[in-house]
Known about the structure:
Strand content: 15-25%
Oligomer: single chain
Amino acid sequence: MRNPDETDLISATGHEIPPPYAIQPGTRFPPGATAEADGVNFCIFSQHASRVDLLLYASADSLAPFQIIPLDSEQNRSFFFWHVFVENLPVGTYYTWRMDGVGDTAATGRRFYPEKELLDPWAQIVSDMLWNRRLACTEQDSRSNRLRAIVAEPLSRATSASHWKQVNLEGAVIYELHVGAFTRHPSAAVRHPGSFTALKEKIPYLQALGVTHVELLPVMAFDTQDVPPGVAERGLHNYWGYSTHSFWAPHPGYCIDPAHSAQEFRDLVDALHAADIRVLLDVVFNHTAEGDEAGPVIHFRGLANDIIYHLDASDRRRYLDFTGCGNTVNCNHPLVTAFIVHCLEYWVEVLGVDGFRFDLASVFVRGDNGVPLANPPFPWVIVSSHILARVPMIAEAWDAAGLYQVGAFPGMAWSEWNGRYRDVIRRFVRGDPGLIGEVATRITGSADLYADDKRKPISSINFITCHDGFTLYDLVSYNVKHNEANGEDNRDGSNDNLSWNCGVEGETDDAAVNALRLRQAKNLLAIMMLSRGVPMLLAGDEVLRTQRGNNNAYCQNNALSWFDWQFSERNAGMLRYTRELIALRRRHPSLTSDRFFTGVPLPGRDIPDIAWHGARLNEPPWHDLQARLLAYTIAALRDDEEDLHVILNMSDQSVEAPLPLMRGRRWHRTLDTAQSSPADIFTREHQQPIVAGIYPVAPRSVIVLEARA
């Protein structure tokens, strides 16, 4: 195969063509492109390829390579890896691979595309300037519409060491945010909207809010064009990022200069660490952007299709889909496990992140044939890594095929998104009766799910809302989803939202309805922040951000999804309430303790660590199928902490609630969601003592009292 004519290249791109570079055999480790003082070592995996070419490009928009390097199976292959060293090749060179081999797709699942260029799966920087998903799905050569890898400048290990200080989530308050949405709205008033750099400008806001961790929706490079045809016809894109193609590379769309994406991302991490905020990444290893058999050829499909993906045993041309996204990654294959673990270690050691949340993590327990394994190695290997064992791992413990493992996710040291917590608290606050027993279990750490396995309350990530579903405001404003703007005739998104619109669907001028919605939003946040376990707040809920009833805004890169910073002024009372609520939680070790309550007295105290009540003291309504009120008293764990008394009244009736006597202490009102701002929550110095032995509890309200001398 010849190199393209230089005259053609110069006229097509305007770039000067470098001379051909000399090559050496290279080495099989590490995979990817590794820049050294005297050149670059390239290595890629393909067990069954018989011909391998490395293609080098001068720029992101070059239409043809300036050098094509055929690899020799004797000189450039070790085991299942192909490698070559290119002397004096500069950092910043763009490259792709091309593979050929014997494919017997129906029998073996092997696929080869000799005319298609493949992206390096280990690429640490990628360019999507010429990417066209539609063309990539066709069989013809689409060389001018490819994703390209870039030889990266080597980064040293992360200089910020804050991510080694804390190995678990005790005391954490997580804030889930989308990098683009957080600063894309004009009201954000940042220099580079929607970028890693712009997010740094909002760190003071995060500090003032009081969160300890940000959980970033996918920032590994993803395919924005991966949406159904009807969605694409509306000019919409995959915005959330759950369509990863380059697991080692930050998303170029979040960068000022995509060629320096790794450095820009690490600068953000360092800035957050300097503000004592840790960084969790939402990662998507359950499927890739290649989709099903009609999807594009990006990398794995042309390298090791039969190893990377779950295939149908009866016809290995077809992909098993446990994710709802067309394919499923075969995570328990040893080579796939190694790829993912090494990738995660890179994000921790080099890019400095502090932990991960895994999308549709129940995929991780499926064996080669897709059947769940009793003892799947992959979840254990992750939390056994000497690097990853030091940072939190959070599982979304279900998949799209119905495998639900909340409370039973295998492996040690995993935390889980607690979907059971979300569901029962939503039902309780909207007024469903007979839930008191389960509510008590959930707000005390879900011992029924975790205690028997010797796990702790931090195993439970408690959340009311997340990116997937209604925002907090929409949860109290809509009974049904309104996803018409997505272009799928409102078929997409969940139909089971456990929401209540407070009497009117959507926006209204009814002052009473709006007041009730505000109270309900405060109730939901209060219960979450008063629960043992780890609370997770969706970005914008603190200012009542709305998506106008859209509960699946994955394709809405517009004002519907963006964080409108005008809400922080319009709903300043809610923002203040949330800040003080987080501060209340963080100053009470009895709320953040990573121990389950026992119901027995604490050392040196004559009251139990928790006591349960109903409308009467010490008479919890465990067996009352109509009960919608629960009260409880929590004993302080330290001398400088106050005891707490909490009343949750989700009924539509007022209650005169008796207060327990506390020897040498008096109750002070801290929080009452029935009160208007700023009387809804008081800081310590502004609290007034309660003289009477009862407290008038309004309907649908949460009360918190603190006892002090």
